[in-house]
Amino acid sequence: MDKVTVLNSHDIATLLDMPAVIQVVKDAYAEKTTKDGEIWPMVYNAFSDMADTDIRSGLLKPKKIFGNKELTWFGDNAKKNLPELHGVVTLYSSETGVPEAFINAPALTGFRTGAASAVATKELANPNSETLLIVGAGGQAAYQIMAQICVLPKLKQVLIYDPMSSENAGKFAQELPQKLTILFADNIQMNRPTVAAKIKERIKQIKFIAASNIIEATKNAQVIVTATPSTKPLIKAQWVQSGTHINAIGADMEGKQELDTQLYQNARAFADDLDQASGVGETQNPIKDNIIKKGDVTEIGDVIVQKSVGRQNTNEITIFDSTGIALQDLEAANLALQRAKRFNAGVVVDL
Amino acid sequence: MDKVTVLNSHDIATLLDMPAVIQVVKDAYAEKTTKDGEIWPMVYNAFSDMADTDIRSGLLKPKKIFGNKELTWFGDNAKKNLPELHGVVTLYSSETGVPEAFINAPALTGFRTGAASAVATKELANPNSETLLIVGAGGQAAYQIMAQICVLPKLKQVLIYDPMSSENAGKFAQELPQKLTILFADNIQMNRPTVAAKIKERIKQIKFIAASNIIEATKNAQVIVTATPSTKPLIKAQWVQSGTHINAIGADMEGKQELDTQLYQNARAFADDLDQASGVGETQNPIKDNIIKKGDVTEIGDVIVQKSVGRQNTNEITIFDSTGIALQDLEAANLALQRAKRFNAGVVVDL
């Protein structure tokens, strides 16, 4: 019988450290460009306005694995005291087709989505950036903030703006140092003590401030992450200062929008996957408004392997559109599986 | 944490009895026609000529489940002392998106593919058929034979023809009574004793005979199952007697063929899925040869719900092209999961 390692949300939290996930997500983007990674067609189904599922799959040749991630979103689950997100990443050996792991998908997705923005920030933002603005205080916010802290060595403050409720932003900002410490340091204390200590230290050095005025906050930030389900622009072009880098991660279907399309008049556009970004990502909007063409957008993998140039000077505005590719999931899942073997984590079931 | 039931190949063998799987596969075909079942786009990837994987997914509204099956085939695995087929069916609740089960896919696939032919035979074959010919003595053969026995009450003999080796057919025929008894009766003795007893009795009543002459064997059979990886016709039109029903299950990609396309001149064509059958199933061949049009083929679900007529008289030749649909996998997986709960089988893992 096949021996399959099961890694639940607790295992993922104790095995994955954010700096390591950032490294493998960078690998994933490079593998897309070099064709060492294959992305197979995505399956998407909406059950209703409030529930959907998608299956992303692909092959990572250098790691000798392939697999799929099915992630389900049921927006009404809170009424049933259940999380909104569920799902599984299944990894297979590309040498034998044998299944190797079942991994909690929402836990992994938080890490890999945070890491995606961090990879783009590392490649595209001014490295001396001191102020990060995060728009949206939902389930992704803590992962996004932690990942940005990891790649911005000069970061001094994080501004949190919640378009739904400024009260929520205040509560979120107050609880954040403790939340980040538990999630990203305490959890890995046993397996990755050195990384845990560094992360704890960095969290202590940073101020977390609720922002009630989005105009002021935008003007003050050198790096911005938008992580909302918005369908209208939240950030206006005239508020964004030269030299700013923006990670737009909220848009993942037709009709979603977080940025003023005018912003693209004076910005350079990047994305994880050109087709997906121009179809369902933030990039769909400036293309529809005829401000940019699909050909104007650079894939981040091309920047990583130095096929294309990233930031050209300190004044440029850069925008990264993160829509999510299977290779991120497979890289992060493979990291979790390799560490599970090393630290003897998870349970092994006979299939 | 989500509680997920893991059912391995041994669990499937002890939980599923063939008559029950035939019933739920019949439900699956009906659900395709009535739209109570949704089939989502298939993902297929060939790693080489000797290895591939596919992901079939969909939704079964009446059962409140959705899910996917990834089935991998690595044809060189025998050299590594590994089975060629591996994979997993993952079931989710369509009310919450919570994963409910991980199920061994090859074990389930054997049952559901055997059951598929049996459903078609029940709907289309002459019910008094006494002789079954099975062409191919590979991994599917035992499942196909057992399923046919379940739906042909007058069956007296099973002829086994192996296009690769008549010696193999002889050995296979000799071992078959014991093999069928172990696989489909002894395995379910504990959970389904009455069904096990009936199946044992039926196996005893039937002669299993190796056939070295395919022409004679075809002429003698009232029901034929072809289950080979052939790319050339194995059964010629002139050998097939009037009134014969054929289940063609081998063809599952472009270029595969088991039947002489001339056979379709005087036969009525049925399939599980019109698009898939005319694209990659046996049905692709007579369509390419301009002998039938896609519109001439009837989906078996239409016959089951009496939207279309099945066999019209005892003299007709009928051909069923089985290519496999996700709803079969989901129905069979759901049956296994419900029984696992009832008989307290499998293990439950925290995800």
Compressed to H and E, one letter per element, the order of chain A equals EHHEEEEEHEHEHHEHEEEEEHHEHEHE
What is the architecture of the largest domain in chain A at the second tier of CATH? Answer: 3-Layer(aba) Sandwich
Would you identify the regions of chain A where 5 or more consecutive residues have pLDDT less than 50?
none
Judged by helices, strands and strand pairing, the structural class of chain A is: alpha/beta
Radius of gyration of chain A: 19 Å
Oligomer: homodimer
Note the total helix count of chain A.
11
CATH classification class of the largest domain in chain A: Alpha Beta
Average predicted local confidence, pLDDT of chain A: 97
The helix content of chain A is: 25-40%
* Largest binding interface between chains: A-B, 45 and 45 residues
First-residue to last-residue Cα separation of chain A: 6 Å
Shape of chain A: globular
Lateral arrangement of strands in the main beta sheet of chain A: 9-8-7-10-12-16-14-15
Your description of this structure?
Two copies of one chain form a homodimer. Chain A has two domains: 3-108 and 326-350, 2-Layer Sandwich (ornithine cyclodeaminase, domain 1), CATH 3.30.1780; 117-321, NAD(P)-binding Rossmann-like Domain (Rossmann fold). In chain A, 37% of the residues lie in helices and 28% in strands. Chain A contains eleven helices and 17 strands. Chain A has helices spanning 9-15, 18-34, 105-124, 141-151, 166-184, 193-205, 214-220, 274-280, 284-288, 300-304, 326-343, and strands spanning 3-7, 37-48, 51-60, 65-74, 85-93, 99-104, 131-135, 157-161, 207-210, 223-226, 231-235, 245-248, 257-259, 267-271, 298-299, 317-321, 347-350. In chain A, strand 5 and strand 6 form a beta hairpin. Chain A starts with a strand and ends with a strand. Chain A binds chain B through residues 1-2, 4, 6, 8-10, 38, 40-41, 43, 45, 47, 51, 53, 55, 57, 59, 66, 68, 70, 72-74, 77, 80, 82, 85-88, 90, 92, 94-99, 102, 104, 347, 349-351, and chain B through 1-2, 4, 6, 8-10, 38, 40-41, 43, 45, 47, 51, 53, 55, 57, 59, 66, 68, 70, 72-74, 77, 80, 82, 85-88, 90, 92, 94-99, 102, 104, 347, 349-351.
